[in-house]
Amino acid sequence: MKALRKIIIESDSRQGRIFDIFIQVLIVISLITFSVDTLPNKTESTTRLLRTIEIITVSIFTIEYLFRVVLSERKLKFVFSFFGLVDLLSILPFYLSVGLDLRSLRALRLLRLFKLFRYSKTIRRMKVALSIARQELVLFFSLTCILLYLSAVGIYYFENAAQPESFSSIFSSLWWAVATLTTVGYGDIYPITVGGKIFTFAILMVGLGIVAIPAGIIASAVEKARDMEG
Amino acid sequence: MKALRKIIIESDSRQGRIFDIFIQVLIVISLITFSVDTLPNKTESTTRLLRTIEIITVSIFTIEYLFRVVLSERKLKFVFSFFGLVDLLSILPFYLSVGLDLRSLRALRLLRLFKLFRYSKTIRRMKVALSIARQELVLFFSLTCILLYLSAVGIYYFENAAQPESFSSIFSSLWWAVATLTTVGYGDIYPITVGGKIFTFAILMVGLGIVAIPAGIIASAVEKARDMEG
Amino acid sequence: MKALRKIIIESDSRQGRIFDIFIQVLIVISLITFSVDTLPNKTESTTRLLRTIEIITVSIFTIEYLFRVVLSERKLKFVFSFFGLVDLLSILPFYLSVGLDLRSLRALRLLRLFKLFRYSKTIRRMKVALSIARQELVLFFSLTCILLYLSAVGIYYFENAAQPESFSSIFSSLWWAVATLTTVGYGDIYPITVGGKIFTFAILMVGLGIVAIPAGIIASAVEKARDMEG
Amino acid sequence: MKALRKIIIESDSRQGRIFDIFIQVLIVISLITFSVDTLPNKTESTTRLLRTIEIITVSIFTIEYLFRVVLSERKLKFVFSFFGLVDLLSILPFYLSVGLDLRSLRALRLLRLFKLFRYSKTIRRMKVALSIARQELVLFFSLTCILLYLSAVGIYYFENAAQPESFSSIFSSLWWAVATLTTVGYGDIYPITVGGKIFTFAILMVGLGIVAIPAGIIASAVEKARDMEG
Lengths: 230, 230, 230, 230
Prior knowledge:
homotetramer, 230 residues, mainly alpha, flat
């Protein structure tokens, strides 16, 4: 019992690490299987192979999950923890054959890698940094949303008459605002009137700041969190 | 009188908070109504429903506005304050039935949310950060404008002969400069000559810095403002 | 003589400021004239008006330039200074009627605005920041160039066979590398093979850092320069 | 022997610097030759000229390489060092006439420029900065990969039915995720459904931070490394 806990839950011993790496490799295999599964025009033998791999990996994940629950000292706490829920949700659909496929959630299980490679200090630092910058992030996210809305309304007035197809409503204009202020700029929708172009320039000058500042604030909060450690 | 002021103007009491949240929800509803109103091909019943919601929300906003004026200790100061003007401008067009629709300004009323959730410290910090970085921001904004102009002139000389439609004048070239230096890159206009491409590379190397630095400067000014508090 | 110098060269007195602002307004007018001049399909009267404005502004700029030279204590030093050369180059082509139009250089004359609004401290800080970060900037610019070249070669091998038109040589691939690593992404040229897409992902992961870091380094050098002042 | 080492390996003496600059110029020439070589429709005389330049430069590089090996005090260490391998790999294919052309690796030889211009301090600082930020970089790179995968799966569910050609599988969706989260936005593939657009907005709000933070972290680590020096 104690030996099993050492292997499955903890990762300090050699066997524990090997077990963890084995599970992580299985997760990656199962994610690739899932992705290949979405390819159109698969041959029947490929489909069969994918199905087999899926059955094997899910079986192992299920056994692992049950062991994790049984071996936990506080079972309920594990079941409702982040990793407990992710572990469950990424195998449950297989048994329930529900419409919604949650296999991609297995990607989140890869986050255990950080525990494996002893990143606990770095992760704690990130949490400190996030808590330092929390209020600024909420503020800038709200400002971004308000700015996106006002940009959408503005461009709608400038472009709707000239391009009734592209800027058909404030909702399509919102899509333009998102693609423009994040500087993605797909090019599926853009202003053609002089007024709309000048408005875009003005919005970008204000918006680039508002959208780009959070990353800078987090970066300096990480720095501060590092200073607080030493 | 005092009790009403507590509810409508202040937001410390329980009733005050409930009132504020009620108004904020109304604002969001009215913004959605406004957006839906721009959708083409609405049925008549939808139009009627939107109109009804608009009448109800504007009525409530009007009563709220009048109360805010009456309950203010310094009435004129409130009327000409930022929120006083925004409150007025976002209901006035309804009564004047003017051409210009200012309903979208209600989005700015959402900024009161920050007061509600006691973000006054964060907002004060932002103001300090902006005042620290003010001169740099003006400097970089001016440099950006000059760089945009010179980029537009430069690309005009390189591309006008090859693409007389896209780069028809310095004004169209300015639009290219805005879309390129902000890295939005819609793809509606781009250089095709070798000279124009090399020029774009040179401009981007200088310009990425000039456009991206302000965000970094604000981020570190926020950091400094935080340090000044403690 | 002394009074004239106070007005034209210095900008401390009231008359000096008025003169400076007058010249700056003239520069902006002349830049707009220049831009309008590039518009196709102008009427004859417009062309005549533009020509008249050009003659007036150039005359004033010439008189101003001559005064600046005459009133300078060290004449040669002014003539070969940055502003001295910009002043000369932006009026000379008018008299020589050379092919190359340098009127756009007048935009650089707008930089005198910073002197007018007493930004000398901010500009000095920028110079300190640039000198702090100089070596890093040279390093990252070199790394960017090498990375652009290697990206171009890489994508050429992946895409040339599939898209011989778009990726016709390393030179066209270089254009792709510039547009991609700066995240402009016009969409005129992009990989379509699986190998090319994976290569793009790898290059972007490395490249985003190398291209984006200089802006961050300058921002923190500005911060350091500010600290050194106080 | 000692004199030769001074010239070829060290770059403190005047002759050493001249030799180094001579080699660097040759590398640039050979890189240009290599690029021109990929141009389609070359005349026969051009091809011959390129071939001649290639033979001359490779001969000089080979002699240089042999001298570097012979003159090194610890020969094996040089051969297996970064520059030793780059030097070898960028001439070897010429003699083996293998399919894979590694001439572009010569670009990496340009890194010796930094030694030439005594950038050793700056490079050491960069190494310190990278070692400070290493764990954060690994963390954010992993988060980026997981986020890219989840974005690809999400957009696949939203868009596959509407655009079975563009979002044909999770692999094509991954390409969309890369182009979008890096804000390159070529415009070859983008969401058209309302759900897909809202999902893109959500992903971008989270993703811009995760992708942009590493550059900020490196920038502040450079700052810290600078502080540690003084």
